[in-house]
């Protein structure tokens, strides 16, 4: 499958964290690092330690449409049989955009939130409002596709499409998500609807990919031929054709293999 979105650059804020005195031995909470961070959005969490770090970081996860899922640091913890909670005041905020799709965090239960006197969410986020609109759902769905969490993206994208049924980017994201989940017939239905309304190279390529996965080689060939009709330059046509030549060679489609081999050499687009 050809990835059609480039990971956007985000400006995660980076600060040096000073040595902080730890105060107050807390009753040991049941914190287990078994929750994928995507499932902990809008919750207080503890991040796992990396290597030789002395402290655990705890804070709040939220979704920022311009950055992705962001961890807002509240403070630090240590564990030596019991959890020691730092309560020193800090005059700045550390925020980190989460990148690793496999990261597991520990969600802090409400009982521990009360014990630690944690607010509903950090004071630094009180002024930040991200209404749960169709646009919010679309942006979160796009982000989840980017970090390989397409099964979570699908319900959000469908919700956004209900409000904007003719939004081409939403249809593409939904088709892409179904392909990523190996739900190829659904991907084909969504993407065929998309190319009827707004044809594009990336949609044709996703259709070609889906057809290849269900062994519909000639249909895939048709979609890829449509895709190269949209290519902006000869170099890209030859690159795509070279990849398809190898794909069709591998699956034993000799005539299609030769077709794409010739296109890779000439860069000329065949007539349908």
Question: What does this 3D model show about the protein?
Answer:
With 272 residues, the chain is of the alpha+beta class. It is 43% helix and 14% strand. It contains nine helices and seven strands. Strands 1, 2, 3, 4, 5, 6 and 7 form a seven-stranded antiparallel β-sheet that branches. A hairpin with a 3-residue loop joins strand 4 and strand 5. Helix 2 packs antiparallel against helix 3. The protein is elongated, with a radius of gyration of 24 Å. The N terminus is likely disordered.
Quick recap of the structure?
With 272 residues, this protein is of the alpha+beta class. It has 9 helices and 7 strands; from the N terminus they run E-E-E-E-E-E-E-H-H-H-H-H-H-H-H-H. Helix 2 packs antiparallel against helix 3 (150-163) and helix 3 (150-163) runs antiparallel to helix 4 (168-180).
User: Can you count the helices?
Assistant: 9
Main β sheet profile: 7 strands, antiparallel
- Percent helix range: 40-55%
Mean pLDDT across all amino acids? 83
Overall 3D geometry? elongated
- Structural class assignment: alpha+beta
Write the layout of secondary structure elements.
Elements: E1 35-36, E2 43-46, E3 56-64, E4 68-79, E5 83-85, E6 95-97, E7 104-107, H1 110-115, H2 134-146, H3 150-163, H4 168-180, H5 184-197, H6 201-213, H7 217-229, H8 234-250, H9 254-266
Antiparallel strand pairs: 1-7, 2-3, 2-7, 3-4, 4-5, 4-6
């Amino acid at each position: 499958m050809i990835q059609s979105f480039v990971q956007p650059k985000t400006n995660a804020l980076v600060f040096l964290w000073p040595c902080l005195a730890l105060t107050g031995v807390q009753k040991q909470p049941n914190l287990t690092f078994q929750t994928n961070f995507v499932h902990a959005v809008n919750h207080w969490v503890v991040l796992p330690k990396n290597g030789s770090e002395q402290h655990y970081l705890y804070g709040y996860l939220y979704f920022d449409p311009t950055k992705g899922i962001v961890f807002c640091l509240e403070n630090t913890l240590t564990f030596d049989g019991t959890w020691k909670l730092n309560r020193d005041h800090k005059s700045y905020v550390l925020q980190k955009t989460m990148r690793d799709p496999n990261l597991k965090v520990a969600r802090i239960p409400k009982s521990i939130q009360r014990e630690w006197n944690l607010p509903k969410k950090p004071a630094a986020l009180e002024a930040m409002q991200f209404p749960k609109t169709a646009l919010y759902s679309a942006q979160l769905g796009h982000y989840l596709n980017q970090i390989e969490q397409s099964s979570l993206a699908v319900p959000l994208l469908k919700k956004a499409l209900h409000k904007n049924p003719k939004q081409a980017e939403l249809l593409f994201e939904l088709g892409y998500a179904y392909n990523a989940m190996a739900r190829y017939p659904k991907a084909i239905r969504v993407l065929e609807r998309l190319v009827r309304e707004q044809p594009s190279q990336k949609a044709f390529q996703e259709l070609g990919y889906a057809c290849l996965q269900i062994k519909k080689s000639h249909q895939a060939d048709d979609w890829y031929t449509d895709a190269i009709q949209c290519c902006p330059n000869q170099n890209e046509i030859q690159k795509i054709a070279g990849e398809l030549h190898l794909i069709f060679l591998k699956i034993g489609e000799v005539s299609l293999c030769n077709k794409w081999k010739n296109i890779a050499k000439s860069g000329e687009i065949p007539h349908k």
